Amino acid sequence: MATPSLNLATRLLATSALAARVLAPRVLATKSPMTKPPGTKLLATLLAALALAAGLSQGQEAGEYDVKAAYLFNFARFTEWPPPQEGPLQVFLMGRDPFGAPLSALEGRMAQNRPVHIKRDVAVDDMAACQIVFVSDSEARRLKPILQAASAHPTLTMSDIGGFADNGGMVGLYLADQRIQFDVNLAAIRDANLKVPAQVLKLAHQIINPKARP
């Protein structure tokens, strides 16, 4: 019997092969010629996992932060950072921890041939050392200085603070229509010298600054 601590990323990857057969033709048929996907088969599988996460509601087997942890994990696998990129892929959590076990379960999982390392309770000055920072809603009042500090580094910023992408964050997660959805701020991604494949952007609910190119 599966334990409650089994994270959503594991379940998604276990079922993504079936989902990929349904979702991949639609997604890959519209791929942008400007984007070089990291292998058609792999991209189809990972996109299926990300799309499946978006379709799971709170009333189903996965909780809200299981799904958000799956999004975080998949952005770790998709996002392209400027070189050099060596050692563990650092994922920092700033502020109160709403994830608990689902985030802990990502520790050591492989993303882009790098083990994921989770670090909690980080300070603004720590962001130079991470690839992804998730800003908890407990930090909403400090969001502006946090994003200003992050902008000095190639750090992907994610949060479920309301209006996160509208206010300069890169990926904003939120619950709408009983689904976890995400908005993307392309200008913020571009300014940080990061790249997110066009196929992933097609899954966003809203793209802020749509004329920008990551």
Protein structure class: alpha/beta
Tell the overall outline.
globular
> Quick one: biggest sheet?
8 strands, mixed
How many structural domains in the coordinates?
1
**Number of H/I helices:** 7
Task: Please identify which CATH superfamily we are dealing with.
Answer: Response regulator
Q: What is the name of the CATH architecture?
A: 3-Layer(aba) Sandwich
β-sheet strand percentage: 15-25%
Report how far apart the termini are.
Answer: 43 Å
Please give the radius of gyration in angstroms. Answer: 16 Å
Biggest sheet, spatial arrangement of strands:
2-3-1-4-5-6-7-8
Helical residue percent band: 25-40%
Which class in CATH terms?
Alpha Beta
Unreliable spans are: 1-40, 53-60
Number of strands: 8
Order of helices and strands: HHHEHEEEHEEEHHE
Give the integer mean of the pLDDT values. Answer: 78
The CATH topology is Rossmann fold
